[in-house]
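Open question from group meeting: does this chain pack into something compact, or does most of it stay loose? Before anyone orders reagents, we agreed to write out a predicted structure and look at it together. Recording both the input and the output here so the notebook holds the full record.
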Amino acid sequence: MQFFENIVKPFVEKYSFGVCSYLGAKWGINESRVRLYFIYTSFVAFGSPIIFYLATAFWINIRKYLRAGFSLK
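Structure tokens returned:
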């Protein structure tokens, strides 16, 4: 369990797209719980939630750039 807490969890949180944290904050639940739901539904639905995950990551990045404004220098 120490390996997961010290190595795997920080790696996933650093390199993920922030979808689980975004959805957790939006829905008012813990982001690790959202991650577990994505994992469980991916197994049950044969990976189709991954498409939702990637689409949400794309949308979050687009919103971030739109809110920051366009700078064409």
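Observations to bring back to the group:
Residues 18-68 form one domain.
The CA atoms of residues 31 and 71 lie 32 Å apart.
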